[in-house]
Amino acid sequence: MELRQLQIFSTAAKTLNFTKTAVELGYVQSNITSQIQQLENELNVKLFERFGRKLQLTSEGKAFLKNAEKILQLSERAKGEFSPEIFGGILNIGVAETLCVSRLPQLLLRYRKLYPRVEIRVQTENCTQHIELIRNNTIDIALTLTKEINQPDMEVRALCGEPMAVVVSPLHQLAQKKIVEPKDLSGECLISSPEGCGYRPIVLSILKEHEVTPSAIMEFSSVGARKECTICGLGVAILPKISVKDELERGRLVELDWKGPSFGVKTQLIYHREKWLSPTIKAFLELCKSLEDQPVKNGCNRL
């Protein structure tokens, strides 16, 4: 017994005409007759009978119609659970802390308006941990900040470039320099993210390439802590510009005119190549395309 047969039977029970049933469902009449006969053979009953040229349901057909309609209704309800308007489920996202407080809120606001029944769980971890969490199927997808990711088992989508800002307190001595090169950071305290952060190795690689040795490195896992310590004048920080936008506008931090190499940091979306993309995940991936509005090299300034 197939759903198609039940649909044909239900329609025929309403039209009481196999020709009209064929037209309504887009089949040839012989197919309608054949499917009804197969259903009758399987049930071992007669569902329709003819009185002259008039088609009628048998008493068995009337009884079966109630069950057939219940099955069809349950089928539609089951399919409806995965329609964009009402589907639910759980979405597990790993996000770099900077993106969690900058780009993610507006993204989730739009997602929640479209899919209010989805339960969203967010973990803030570094890039290395995100990849392991994806491999362990602890999270579904991740948004991270780093250079291009080269992992054979990962699908990677570079969404947009993230301009980096070299920032100091307005009272810091470097705030008065018109141009700042890597060598100018020699002997300065570098306020840095911890190991595992996507853009930390990029920063350290540039300093090493130019033989720059900071006087010290202060590590903070919190972006907020790195900003506040920089504001207090403890040293120099290199952060995604989007994370210091407010502090720059309010004059609490000063962006130095960096003339060193480009940092090449990008917001990237990653998930496992073998991951089954549920409607819940596909919907989020679709919304993330809004970050691709501008070319990667130009950064992205809006959602």
TrEMBL record:
<dbReference type="Pfam" id="PF00126">
    <property type="entry name" value="HTH_1"/>
</dbReference>
<protein>
    <submittedName>
        <fullName>LysR family transcriptional regulator</fullName>
    </submittedName>
</protein>
<dbReference type="InterPro" id="IPR036388">
    <property type="entry name" value="WH-like_DNA-bd_sf"/>
</dbReference>
<dbReference type="Pfam" id="PF03466">
    <property type="entry name" value="LysR_substrate"/>
</dbReference>
<feature type="domain" description="HTH lysR-type">
    <location>
        <begin position="1"/>
        <end position="58"/>
    </location>
</feature>
<comment type="similarity">
    <text>Belongs to the LysR transcriptional regulatory family.</text>
</comment>
<keyword id="KW-0238">DNA-binding</keyword>
<dbReference type="InterPro" id="IPR000847">
    <property type="entry name" value="LysR_HTH_N"/>
</dbReference>
<dbReference type="InterPro" id="IPR005119">
    <property type="entry name" value="LysR_subst-bd"/>
</dbReference>
<dbReference type="InterPro" id="IPR036390">
    <property type="entry name" value="WH_DNA-bd_sf"/>
</dbReference>
<keyword id="KW-0804">Transcription</keyword>
<keyword id="KW-0805">Transcription regulation</keyword>
